[in-house]
């Protein structure tokens, strides 16, 4: 019997990329990049975090940031000892990648932060979210809607990204088809700012998180996360290598998938040799 592969995974003897989406998005946003990486001989898993994409839970049912990140934590924990994992986080997904690095440093060959939230060891996860919100212009979210979720842990804020925000800040250089897709399938998301894990300054350690090779991909024309903000995150972790992509929007994997693929292949060739 021939085993059927998840079309978002693939099988090969190359590196195993695990792709993590940003706020309100899902595995679907990597649909252009996945076949490119597979064609280059690598295994690819694009994950839905909890209450995202096609994941069955609702955001008000997700108890914590750890539970939100559980699909990634389980995937890394279940990886074979001979696999060489390359975690790729986009936007808010960088914080889930950081948590996985802290928990399983010996299973991750490298982590790539694609215009992503990249914390540094010894500071709280929530620092990145707080700084982004501090720098955000009052009208940045445009037609997006804040909401309050009633959860078993108490009230939690969430946001639903509006179509005008998607068009102006996230998909401004992407195709009309990608923008329409996003307006159809994005879901309300939470930044878990009230979660104790976000406030824990001892969570990310130099021994674990700090021991994994980190690389930041600066998207120079990102209207959602400014280049200045991206550079600030990189500066928090001195020695972090970087690559740059020009001409892409915040959703670089949609607007410039070939460039993103080329960057990832260069990164693993340079830093994750056999």
UniProtKB/TrEMBL annotation:
It comes from Lolium multiflorum. Pfam families: Abhydrolase_6. GO terms for molecular function: methyl indole-3-acetate esterase activity; methyl jasmonate esterase activity; methyl salicylate esterase activity. Residues 18-262 form the AB hydrolase-1 domain. Gene3D superfamilies: alpha/beta hydrolase (3.40.50.1820). GO terms for biological process: jasmonic acid metabolic process; salicylic acid metabolic process. This is AB hydrolase-1 domain-containing protein. SUPFAM superfamilies: alpha/beta-Hydrolases.
């Amino acid at each position: 019997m021939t085993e059927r592969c998840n079309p978002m995974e693939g099988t090969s003897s190359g590196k195993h990329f695990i792709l993590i989406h940003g706020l309100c998005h899902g595995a679907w946003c990597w649909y252009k990049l996945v076949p490119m990486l597979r064609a280059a001989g690598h295994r690819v898993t694009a994950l839905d975090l909890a209450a995202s994409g096609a994941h069955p839970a609702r955001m008000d049912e997700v108890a914590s940031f750890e539970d939100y990140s559980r699909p990634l934590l389980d995937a890394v924990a279940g990886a074979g000892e001979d696999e060489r994992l390359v975690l790729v986080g986009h936007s808010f997904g960088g914080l889930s990648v950081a948590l996985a690095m802290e928990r399983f440093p010996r299973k991750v060959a490298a982590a790539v932060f694609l215009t992503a939230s990249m914390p540094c060891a010894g500071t709280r996860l929530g620092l990145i979210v707080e700084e982004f919100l501090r720098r955000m212009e009052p009208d940045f979210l445009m037609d997006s809607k804040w909401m309050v979720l009633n959860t078993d842990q108490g009230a939690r804020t969430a946001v639903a990204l509006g179509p005008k925000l998607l068009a102006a800040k996230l998909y401004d250089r992407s195709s009309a088809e990608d923008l329409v897709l996003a307006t159809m399938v994005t879901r309300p998301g939470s930044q878990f700012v009230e979660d104790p894990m976000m406030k824990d300054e001892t969570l990310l350690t130099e021994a674990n998180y700090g021991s994994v090779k980190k690389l930041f991909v600066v998207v120079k024309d990102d209207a959602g996360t400014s280049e200045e903000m991206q550079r600030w995150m990189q500066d928090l972790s001195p020695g972090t290598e970087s690559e740059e992509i020009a001409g892409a929007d915040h959703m670089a994997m949609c607007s410039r998938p070939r460039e993103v693929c080329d960057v990832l292949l260069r990164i693993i060739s340079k830093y994750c040799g056999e």
